[in-house]
Amino acid sequence: CVYRLDIQQGNILAQRDIDKLRPELTKNQVVFVLGSPVVDDGFADDKWVYLYSYENANLGKTTVKKLELYFNGDKLVSAAGDYEIPEALKMSHNIEQ
Amino acid sequence: CSDEVDIYEPDPLVDLDNQFETKVLWKTSIGDGTNDKTVKLSPVYAYQKIFVADGSGNVAAVNPDNGEVIWQTELNTVIGGGPAVANNIVAVGTTQGEVIVLNAADGTEKWRRAVSSEIITSPAVGDGYVVVRSVNDKLTAFDAESGEQQWLHDQTMPSLTLRGDSSPVIVGGGVISGFSNGKLAVFLLDSGRLAWEKTITAPVGYSEIQKLVDVDVKPLVSGTNVYVAAYNGNLTSIEASNGQAIWQRELSTFQEITLSELILLVTHENSHVSAVDKSNGVILWTQKALHRRQLSAPESIGDNVVVTDFEGYLHWLSRKDGTLVSREHIDSDGISAVPLVIDNKVILFGHSGNLYAVAKR
Amino acid sequence: CQSNRATTTEAQRINNAFKLFERAQQSMLSGNYRSAVQYLERLDSLYPFGAYSHRAQLNLIFSYYKLNDYASGIAAADRFIRQNPRHKDLEYAYYMKGLINYSSEKGFGKELFSAPLSERDASTARQAFDDFAELVRLFPNSHYAKDARQRMIYLRNRLAEYELHVANYYMRREAYQAAVSRAKYVVDHYPKTPSVPYALKMMEIAYNLLELPDLAENARQVLLLNYPGFKE
Amino acid sequence: AEKTTSQLTTPKTFDDEFIVTEIDVNGLQRMELGTFFNMLPLQVGEKLDSSRVPIIIRTIYASNSFEDIRMFRDGGKLYIDLKERPTISEITIEGNSDIKTEQILDAMQKSGFAKGEIFDPSAIKSIKLGMEEQYFAHGKYSIKIEDKVITQSRNRVHIKFIVSEGEPAKIQKISIVGNSIFPDEELLNQFELSTGEWYSFFSSEDQYSREKLSGDLETLRSYYLDRGYLKYENTSTQVSISPDRKGIYLTINIDEGEKFKVNDIVFSGDLILTKEQLSSVMPLSKGDTYSAAAISFAEEQIKRSLGFYGYAFAKVVTVPNVIEGENKVDLTLFVDPGKKVYVNRINFAGNETTNDEVLRREVRLMEGSALSNEAVDRSKVRLQRLSYLEEVNVETPKVEDKEDRVDINYQVKERSAGTIQGGVGYSESWGTSLNANVSHSNFLGSGKRIQFGINKNKYSESYRADYWDPYFTLDGISAGVSLEYSITDYNELRYSSGLLDTASLSFNLGYPINEVSRLNFGIGYQDSKLKASRITQAVQVIDFFNDNGQDIRVDPTFDYDLYRLSAAWTRNTLNRGIFPDRGTSQTFSTNFTAPGSDLEFYKLDYSINHYLPIAPGWTFLSKFRASWGKGYGDTESLPFFENFSAGGSGTMRGFESNTIGPRAVDLENYEAIPPISPDGTQSSVPWILPSELSTAVISRRTAGGNARVLGTLELIFPVPFAEDNNSLRTSLFVDVGNLWDTQFDINRYGYLPASELDKIPDYSEPGTYRVSAGFSLQWLSPMGPLTISLSKPIRKEELDETESFSFNVGKTF
Amino acid sequence: CSLFYGEDGLIKDTSYDYLKAKETAPLKIPPHLKHENNVNYTVVPAIGEQAKNAPSGKDISLVAPAQILDVLDNIRANKQSPVPAIYIVENEEFLWDTIINLFTEQGVKFSRRDKANRVLETEWVAVDKRGVWLGIAGEDDIDEFKAKFRIALSEGILKDEKQITVERIAAQMFNDDTDKWQDMANYWHDSAEMLNLIIAHYDTATIERDRNSKNAVVAGFKVQLAHDDNNNAALVTETDKALVWEKLPKVLEALDFDVKDRDRRLMTYFIAYEYEEPGFFASLFDEEQTPLPLESGDYQVTVTTVGELTAIVFRDGQGTPLNAETMVKLYPQLNKLFSDKK
Predict the structure, then answer these.
(1) Nearest CA of chain D to the CA of C81: how many Å?
(2) DSSP state of D675
(3) Residues 6+ away with beta carbon under 8 Å from D475
(4) What pLDDT was estimated at residue B11?
(5) With CB atoms counted within 10 Å of each terminal CB, which end of chain B scores lower, N or C?
(6) DSSP per residue over D608-626, as a string?
(7) Can the peptide bond before residue B83 be classed as cis, meaning omega within 30 degrees of 0?
(8) What is the percent of chain D where pLDDT is above 70?
(9) How far apart, in Å, are the Cα atoms of D787 and each of D385, D457, D607, D808, D812?
(10) Cβ atoms within 10 A of the Cβ of B27, count?
């Protein structure tokens, strides 16, 4: 049927990079490891979203993978999303913050 | 219509009626000559023979009386400087950066060594050493017999130099040579240590051209004095032992200086010929008629002075006042070698590769 | 080396300078800018310094503008600025440079055959904006400052519309991350333009489509605060 | 001598302090009084004593605009006498040819020495130094510069520089010392500098310049490194000039070192690519001679393939470590892919008429997606295929503050896609033609094509309007509609005979099936009326009428309606829309009438054009086309007016249009006057003698055929004297092709006497192919594409009319 | 073609839409959010006070601003003055009369003619749409635009310098629909063009003056060879400086010098001399044209004062005075020419 263009958007992250994440990392260090997020919130910067989407038009299938990083000021606090999250950064671990 | 006179154009010959005639006694072909006018190939008289090296690679010993070739060796390389004859050996330098030494008796090759750059001036032979000056301002000394390299010395070089190098002179256990940075230096033969070093002319001006102060003249040693000159700089008389300047006068040249009793004979950079009093540097006379005719070094013979030009004319000047007295056309390829005077004959080596003997009729 | 015998003394040269300029002015008044340019070029070459050449060069800029010969107009303006850095009418040269770039995008031909203004090449508009900005910065009290500033506002709105036009394409293309960053570009870098509310609205929709509700909420609140009654 | 000394005379009459009641300034010309006063460190009413005077004079002098300052006192009044420094009214430079005056003036302007500036005499010396420096860089060592300062009225000066450039220093000799492996000649002809051959008077290769020398030393170094001499070293280089400043002598001393072999090759770092991929790209293997060129080729290839995976800024560094004594070297290639790079913004510039979206939809990647260099290039090619873009350049600069972001900037140059053509065309075969055509393939910058055309010439008259939108939907589904009415006089066309009057309306729809190929479907309704001539002898015409149960003599007109359906597959990888020089374009189309139309037939057509670049500017084009048509259902054979044609610039250059192919066979039978019938009337039906008695005459007119094969081999070469003009194309070609009728049946004329029978050649025989060769020039003139071809038929059949020169305006590609 | 292409034509002419463009208020950010990287790439700077009421849109005139033509050697523009003005080295009477007869020649009447403090105000004169006086006067010639001008003469700054200022004090335009005269704003450029007309007229007047002064027989006078203040060789005479200034060009032309330029402020003539071999013809016509002992090139001749005497100093192109021997050689010819009648 009609050939449509595959649309790929957002950051392609490798698991081994995510494993390098540790709490207390500054924002610059996170950018050094993962690169800067493609989509960012214009009006708040305590939450970063690395959103990867690949819409394979011809198979009509869209894969989406999301990684959310939460910061307190300049320090990384916790992370969540479709990737394996390092233990130290799991939300449960930081409930008390 | 901008009267852009090219300041380096040679003047035409002035018309002259010869006061005496000269004739070519004999003429011998050594090789097929060279068209690179900046190399220094001058004949040398030793052991009652004339030794001469030709740009195309031939070295020959010639009988001064009749011009017959006693021996001739074919070196298939381009000779840049020489020959230097002493201690029964003949040394020449090649543009491929090699020094070749032959036996003076029969011209057989004794040894040959490589140096780090092109050689375009005659080596120096003496006191058992062969000292070679290469284009990169390096001075290399070899043992005359074995050819072992003894020592090597180099100088800081300016980015632009004048084509042509000063040939080293071995005298009294030392070797003297001029360099492109306007300095004259003396080294001890056995150790290569620097005895003394004197700046003949310091570079002045702001562009590379103005800063050319090469000392390309072969130092002339007479008694305890050394006479040398720098391009764009001064003619100086120096005390051989300690390098102090006795007198200094502004005179720019790159051609060799010759001595005739009490006067120095010099060809200026613009081909004016002067006689200079060797004791105080006062110019006795200057002949300007041969302006820019790329004259060779002057040589005195009797009460005349001879000099050759780029069109191959041999000019005779009066030794007293420098006036032109006679002229004869010798070699159409031009002659720039230093004239060699043996008794009453003038030995000339033209760029055509021919050796001539000329005398007054 | 022909010695140029300037026979005419200073006085005589003045008269024919006046006549030459008179003829240039006549052709300009009658709208024949082609011949005006020739007179002015000759005037400038005959009297290469002083008041004549300034008068000739300034009128040259005006004539090239009228001939729609934008390249030579800008070149003439640049030459005047470079050669007379401290001239009292420098502001005119700066203003005309901006005006020439501004009008090279418009004109009868462009309107008939080209895409709508805010949907095509923005680089000449950007250049016009920078020229006018330099004029107002250098000569805030200039006679032309008010008009230049007004044109800058128009140009800025046109540049913002161009960004939105591209963002719309990406929305239709479902490349929402691209659409969001283009819309954010308008909000961040083209403030005080009428496109800002549309950009905020698009950010909200795109964030929702990207399933980022809290980012969408932020954009919605900013929109609500600034443009309460805004409807798509 | 310039008058530059300023007399800083301390005023004589100053013996004691006094209050300055008034200041009288004299000699100001250019500087305004106001500016002078706010520079003067003294106000009326202040005390002035002899100690302050020198300070005041020095501050005034520091303004660098006064030559002479004198101060006098008369009671309370202070007189200041000034002499302003002149301004420069004019700078002229004479005698310079090698360096342009503008260049020199610009350099002067940078050091504040220009028209209108204050004249500072001391600046002249540094200006001349600068000019000499510029000339030395050009190898002009015997330069002489003279300056003249001519004072003029109103304290202005005119500075004149007279330059005598003298002879440029020519390179007399280059000697390389220490090269034993490669002879001097082999090394020297790699050099840009040389001692100059006879033609060097206009090429400046024998003129020395520092830059060229360092370039040549670099070439020499890589010459050795590429052949295994890892340890090559240029020990020193001497540059010297002959005393007459006319000759430059270069001496290059080198140390060759040993020849090295490659030991083992190791890839390390974050490879991303597999080992096999990496070694497939490395030309060297164990035991080969070391070559710097091969290594840099490998580095380049690795970077390119990493680029496909979004690592646009990958770095590959090769570290050779020498195994001592064995002249072997281990190579380690460190691969650092760098950050994955994303597209920040895609910008277009130069599209003054085209809508941004029309360009953006051709780009295969989106903002915010990972960068793929391959996609960037592919998009450039897609943009170049648009017929309204003349030139497309792309660059991918890094974004300053964002490490892993890159902008993609497309710089386009538009070609005027709107052509309002009117006027008279002339083609040898079809005589003068009047055409008016408004076509715009980028209407309102929207990429849509709108065309209205009126075309009138000797053989036909057609009115046409069509609209086509390549991007009816965002994904590239195209849609179009076209309306056409035409009257064709086949008689003029050297075709059988008859007048065909057609009106048609058709719709088409197309969509991409992958990056390079598309499917198009069309559906159209056509209403036509054929009016043959009653007395035609062309057998094919007569047969057509018989097949359709109609006697031509009774009713020579034939009306028919057709529902035409078409389906086509196209694949296009050409690198440019206009004058491509790489890639292939193929089309396979079927065109048939729906069952139930008055005539049922179908036509198949396959064509392929393949462009193969040989050398810059040289391309080898091979074209092949085959078409075949047949009737089906109750239409026996392909109607003659639907036949293919061959001959003319579209199909076979060198032949007149429609001159190739089966000829119309005219059976001339003798007509007797019809006998008067008993009732005295003469019947209008001519009395035809039995066909056996008719004679066959092969008319010059062709009848076309239902099978056609065409082939072309064309060599495209750069246009002499106008290489960079991209609207001109010149080529040499060989055309081969034939047109025949598979349904032709010789014994259909069995009844003819033998003598007549063998006059009719067997038109079903495909072997009668034609060949022609020649030269063709294509020019994209403002009025539209124009083709001129000079050709010579090599193999032709008799009765083929050839034309050695054809010139026409209009669509030919 | 305004119907087809224009403001409201079929194809919209959008060149004046910018007047309607508006700026909107900057974004207010809710307290709990922040908007850091809002770098404004298109800052629209504020304009100065005076620029606030400048015209814009259609009524901004794009015509190039006028320039004051201070090109004569004794004229200098006064760039500071708010009203077009020039400084001019000239005697006041001659200036005043020249300006007056510029207008009276065309029949312009003056509404104010105050010789004491040198102020003139004209009646209505006809001007074109750019405000430039058409050179005709008279009530009936005025059809569409008319203006009044005030010209004032005052002291300059440098010694014996005068200042001329010109100002358009009133301007009216005839409004067809209301067919009444309606006031127009005055611009600096309109008065500048009038000042230029005065300069041009003054220039022709000086040429007139020089011509008749030339015709007046200038009695010859003796010159001696002596020195000027800084003891350069110079010709000295008692005759008044102005007369010497008048006589000098005739002497120079007679010596085959070519007068290229003159500076009345510095009292210097800039001349050039072309050394020509006395050709065959010269000797044929036995012109006693003995060539001067000078190379060809540029020279200057300055008239200065030595004590009360007038001195004439010859200088070369670079401004260095000629040495004594050349002056001695030149002296006979110079003396002869200065003393003869014509």
Answers:
(1) 13
(2) P
(3) A2, A3, A4, A5, A57, D511, D512
(4) 84
(5) N
(6) EEEEEEEETTEEEEEEEEE
(7) yes
(8) 86
(9) 21, 18, 21, 6, 8
(10) 15
**Nearest-angstrom CA–CA distance, E273 and E259:** 9
Q: For A27, which DSSP code? A: H
Residue D490's nearest CA partner among D435, D409, D434, D556 is: D556
Cβ atoms < 10 Å from Cβ of B328? 15
Q: Round to whole Å and give the CA distance between D483 and D473.
A: 22
Query: DSSP 3-state assignment of D415?
Result: coil
HSE-CB of E291 using CA atoms within 13 angstroms: 13
pLDDT of C9 above 50: no
One-letter amino acid at C173 equals R
Q: What percent of chain D has pLDDT over 90?
A: 15
The DSSP secondary structure of B297-331, one letter per residue, reads --EEETTEEEEE-TT-EEEEEETTT--EEEEEE--
Nearest CA in chain B to D235: B116
Cβ proximity of A25 and A75 under 8 Å: yes
For chain D, how many residues are written? 813
User: What's the complex ipTM?
Assistant: 0.66
CB contact at 8 A, B203 and B211? yes
The Cα D644–Cα D265 span in angstroms is: 63
Rounded Cα distance, D53 and D41, in Å? 10
The predicted pLDDT at position B71 comes to 92
Distance CA B60, CA B69 (A): 7
User: 3-class DSSP state for residue D810?
Assistant: coil
Please, how many CA atoms are within 13 Å of residue D464, restricted to the half-sphere of its CB? 19
Distance from CA of D565 to the nearest CA of A (A): 20
Tell me the C-alpha distance between E222 and D301, whole Å.
95
Strands B89-94 and B183-188, bridge-based pairing: unpaired
Among candidates D655, D767, D656, D774, which has minimal Cα distance to D713?
D774
- d(C-alpha E235, C-alpha E322), whole Å: 12
Question: Are residues B120 and B81 in contact, defined by beta-carbon separation less than 8 angstroms?
Answer: yes
Residue A41 in contact with residue C218, Cβ under 8 Å? yes
Q: Which residue of E has its CA nearest to C214?
A: E33
To test the contact with chain B by mutation, choose from D143, D240, D241 the residue with the greatest count of B C-beta atoms within 10 A, namely: D240
The whole-angstrom separation of Cα D292 and Cα D294 is 5
pLDDT of chain E, 342 residues: tens digit per residue: 445 666 666 666 777 888 888 888 888 888 888 888 788 888 888 888 888 888 777 777 788 888 888 777 778 888 778 888 988 888 888 888 888 888 888 888 888 888 888 898 988 888 877 667 776 666 666 777 888 889 999 887 777 788 999 988 888 888 888 888 888 777 788 888 888 888 888 888 887 777 776 665 566 777 888 877 777 788 888 887 777 887 888 788 888 888 777 777 778 888 888 776 655 655 555 455 566 777 778 888 888 888 788 888 888 877 788 888 888 888 888 888 888 765
Asked whether the beta carbons of residue D238 and residue B161 sit closer than 8 angstroms, the reply is yes
> What is the token pair recorded at D790?
């000079």
Give residue E56's pLDDT. 78
C113·D418 Cβ contact <8 A:
yes
Helix (H), strand (E) at residue E170: strand E162-175
Q: Does A44 touch chain E (CB under 8 A)?
A: yes
Residue written as tokens 């000086």? Answer: E206
- Distance (Å, whole) CA E240 – CA E219: 12
Is D445's CB within 8 Å of C115's CB? yes
Task: Tell me chain A's radius of gyration from C-alpha atoms.
Answer: 15
How is residue D376 written in tokens? 């960037």
Assess contact for D12 and D70: CB atoms under 8 A: no
Mean pLDDT for chain C overall:
84
Q: What is the pLDDT of residues D576-632, one digit of tens each?
A: 887 888 899 999 999 998 887 888 889 999 999 999 998 878 899 999 999 998 888
